[in-house]
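Dear all,

This email documents one entry for the complex benchmark we are building for the journal club exercise. For each entry we list the sequence lines for every component of the assembly. Then comes the predicted three-dimensional structure of the complex as a token string, followed by one or two observations. Please use this as the template for your own entries, and keep the labels exactly as they appear.
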Amino acid sequence: MTDLTETDPAAGEQVVKRFMYVNRKAPHGTVYALEVLEMVLISAMFEQDVHVAFLDDGVFQLKKNQDPGRLEMKDFSKTYRALEGYGIEKIYVEQESLDDRGLAAADLVIPVEVIGRAAMTELMAEMDVVLSA
Amino acid sequence: MLHLVNKSPFERKNLDACLKHAKPGSAILLYEDAVYAALTGTAVTDTMTGAAGTFAVHVLEPDLAARGLGTDRLIAGVRPVDYGGFVDLTEKASSVQAWL
Amino acid sequence: MKYAIVVNEGPYNHQAADSAYQFVKHALDKGHQVLRVFFYYDGVFNGSRFVAPQSDDRHIVKRWAGLAEQHPVDLAICVAAGLRRGITEEVIAPGFRITGLGQLIESCIDADRTVVFGD
């Protein structure tokens, strides 16, 4: 599917695909948010074009001041701050999803690019691989 | 892009989220409990009738049959496919997004 | 066409494992290749050797193994998700193997299509 992939000349025949990790679920109630994050971190090793999207209840994953330690559960919200260090910088949060939940960009643990639903739609349509949970 | 939806629209919002993010003309496959969205005479029939005009909406017939439903109750424009058709849809689309 | 498949849910509790199996079976029947079925989240339970359904029910674990016997499909269980749930080398069924998350990303790169089955 050469029409879907780009070849990076510097990396020889290395295939670079557009990956998107779609987060639509809130943290803690289920394990998905944590295990998607683990998947995102591993993907950083593959030199792919990685996009991480937060929409619907997924935006709650980035809420500041989470304290799941109160429940003896793991606090992985701090790990989102490490993404940049792994070279994962394309992090998108949907504006409408924030608005619907009474949140703003200032409520989030990391700086993100807030985009509207129409832009999210366009972005999703451009992906080669969409991994959701 | 092919969008996969597998949740009942009466219980969860996955289908709603999909419809809000799918580009006009893209393919949608309703399977597992999402097949309930493909029927006439329900609270989502009007929405899905509209969706069938905007998107290429398909429903997985074996999932309908498993639930005691026939293709006679399908909304006009919703196309039944079998598992072979499901595979063909993934082949035709440039990528696949599961709305979980 | 080459496929990478991801299974996010365990057997019996959710239809995802059945849907994924049916999809893989029909893709293979059509002559497509399925490079890898990657079991993540509770999907790791698809590879438990201790699964023992009633005799009149399908055996989801053996059904996967049967596919992999007939076709070059890699049945890969995520090590991290597995450890978290007690699915380790000692308890996996014949036909499955335990591997890292990197193998998931790798199969998505190598495949023409990635299809995720979950909740």
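Observations: The first helix of chain B runs from residue 14 to 21. Residues 9 and 16 of chain B are 8 Å apart (CA to CA).
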